[in-house]
Amino acid sequence: MPKRKTENKRLDRSQKKPEKLIDKNDVRIDGRKLDELRPVKIEVGVLGNADGSAYIEQGKNKILAAIYGPKEVHPRHLALPDRSLLRCRYHMAPFSVEERKSPAPSRREVELSKVIREALEPSVFVEYYPRTSVDIFIEVLQADGGTRCAGLTAASLALADAGIPMRDLVVACAAGKVEGRLVLDLTDVEDKGGEVDLPLALMPNLNGITLLQMDGDLTVDEFEKVVNLALDGCRRLYALQKETLKSKYVVKEAVEE
Ligand code: CDP
Q1: What is the pLDDT confidence band of residue 3, given thresholds at 50, 70 and 90?
Q2: Which atom of ligand 1 is least distant from the CA of 145?
Q3: Strands 85-92 and 132-142, how do they pair?
Q4: Ligand 1 centre and the CA of 11: distance in Å?
């Protein structure tokens, strides 16, 4: 009897990490070159009820970002007299990873919510809206490594889509080291099987880095190379971010009958 699809899926999931993540010709397990990004698709204004929204697919990652605000702060005692309160919730859906994730916020999600908020805050003119809040929601629907970066890229676009005045967009990308090679935009299997993962967020016009994390060890020379690789990835993603935002405002000419 042929196996049902779900059974096959379960078999796939129990497979161990592949023996080699990069072959002798420097081709990665998903067919990418060392400095190649995963295929990226971005949309803005995907949610009717949020003030701003964006959706990103980066490889197998599928992430929604939504913005509510500026609006009155609840609870009111949290309101700041001189600026808007930026809040962020990064959340992974229980079905977003292979092993069901509890819907309750994990320590990892609390940390990611904090670093993402701190990476976005320098780009927003929070002083324009005292005593208000701007809430950023990032919902990871499917995860495959690099979700904090893809979530950040989408959240910044969602802020712009909400019409919130900003100094610059924020765009994020990770680079790292896998089997001794320096690589861009790691997948989950590369992150777990590799030596180093370095997520980085950039304000491209102000040339400011707003997030830089690293797990693993690099020499100073490797560190410089990995940072430059991530910066290069960010600049390529920024071009896509800008294009996506512009496409929202393109006036389609009416086709005459
Ligand atoms: O996603 P990102 O690389 O920013 O964060 P991470 O903590 O380095 O997680 C890497 C990957 O591990 C995630 O993107 C998921 O694919 C996976 N993960 C998982 O399978 N189960 C979890 N509970 C959390 C993460």
Answers
A1: very low
A2: 14
A3: parallel
A4: 21
Is residue 158 within 8 Å of residue 110, measured between CB atoms? Answer: no
pLDDT digits (tens, 9 = 90+) for 42-60: 999 999 999 999 999 999 9
Express each pLDDT in 14-29 by its tens digit.
456 678 999 999 999 9
Sorted by sequence, the CB contacts under 8 Å of residue 5 that are 6+ apart come out as none
**Candidates 3.90.1720.10, 2.40.50.140, 3.40.718.10, 3.30.230.70; correct CATH number of 31-245?**
3.30.230.70
Rg (CA), the chain: 20
Task: Summarize pLDDT for 208-227 with one digit per residue, the tens.
Answer: 999 999 999 999 999 999 99
Average the pLDDT over 180-200 and give the result.
97
Atom 9 (ligand 1) nearest CA: 145
> DSSP per residue over 97-156, as a string?
SSS---SSPPHHHHHHHHHHHHHHGGGB-GGGSTTEEEEEEEEEEE-SS-HHHHHHHHHH
Atom of ligand 1 nearest to the CA of 149: 4
Contact 208, 183 (CB under 8 A): no
Round to whole Å and give the CA distance between 90 and 105. 9
